[in-house]
Microsomal glutathione S-transferase 1 (Melospiza melodia), 477 residues
Amino acid sequence: EGGKMAKSTQLIDNEVFRAYATYTGIVLLKMMLMSLITAYFRITRKAFVNPEDTASFGKGESAKKFLRTDPDVERVRRGHLNDLENIVPFVGIGLLYALSGPELSMALLHFRIFVGARIFHTFAYLIPLPQPGRGLSWAVGYSVTFSMAYRVLKTAWLL
Amino acid sequence: EGGKMAKSTQLIDNEVFRAYATYTGIVLLKMMLMSLITAYFRITRKAFVNPEDTASFGKGESAKKFLRTDPDVERVRRGHLNDLENIVPFVGIGLLYALSGPELSMALLHFRIFVGARIFHTFAYLIPLPQPGRGLSWAVGYSVTFSMAYRVLKTAWLL
Amino acid sequence: EGGKMAKSTQLIDNEVFRAYATYTGIVLLKMMLMSLITAYFRITRKAFVNPEDTASFGKGESAKKFLRTDPDVERVRRGHLNDLENIVPFVGIGLLYALSGPELSMALLHFRIFVGARIFHTFAYLIPLPQPGRGLSWAVGYSVTFSMAYRVLKTAWLL
């Protein structure tokens, strides 16, 4: 193992890249968790969207009543979509940022604040916490991604 | 061609990375196909969401009746969103996994199962197949991504 | 700075990769802007989806009337989702394409057309422009991504 990689780059040996891999792994797993939470609420609230998903509850009208929206399911789905909208830019811009040669301490600062803010955002959305808790955590993550994008564009700029 | 790349990394010469590029290319094209299927159903079912999209059907009430939801269109859109929720983590974690130096055979196993599961998932959603076909294919793809994330975090861990 | 990166790859020194980083940074920032536009319309149209977001407007029925959908908010959200569906494949396939050793001029052509098409698409969606303006700009971006995917699969193919 590692023999094949030796012929190519060893990005994974770079500390900034390792930090990026760690935090990206964590925040993508957190996003994936939203699918499980949605499934949990769909099953416990008996609120489905596809007719084939309610077949085990019987046929006809008895199953049809479970084809409905539920406020808790919809809340998790909104949190999931918000993750997609914010974590996708982090993963893409974060990769370019990690390859732009930042100081490890500065990179860790960016990654830690972003991932912490998104974890807080999920709790704020699901509990839910009163505003501006969720809004502020969204803005913090947004600002971190913006800060990384600034460095990427400053370092790489070739239009 | 290749001259400029010679100065930098030749990731694309690495077999694991080539496998990653191949399967990621395929699964992203599959996801893009969902847009075409949505467009196909919108046009054949005459079910649109933007008023400007129905202008060719006439003005006023005659066009307004095509501003509606259609079960088939909504089904494809749910499949598309499910793709986004699952393929985004695969692309991000898969890249880090490919750079973590796995055996080629193990990497191919992960990539093949994931892409196979997602193609099956699309058929299961669109036909639709009875459950638990769609649910299981979703769980298989989810587990593969989780397995890659485990290796990434084990290899790269730097918090 | 740069000392740590010297031990690993210097992808960022490669001109094609710098172009990729620049255009990906720009188009991801453009996508992030959709969140701000959504927030702007939610606040000016007073159209919210979470009860906790309307708490500052008072309690009970007086706040409840702001839990509603608004056509302008929904339009921006559709533009945002369309961005996700199209920019995610560009970012993933574009990275692989940039690593596949294309000529700089050819890479710039792809990146410029894609990012130009997506910026036009946003204006076409938000103004809105009459069709087929939005449809054509969508198709242009889609075709560019498809063209890059073709080169990636041709170069990297390992199934």
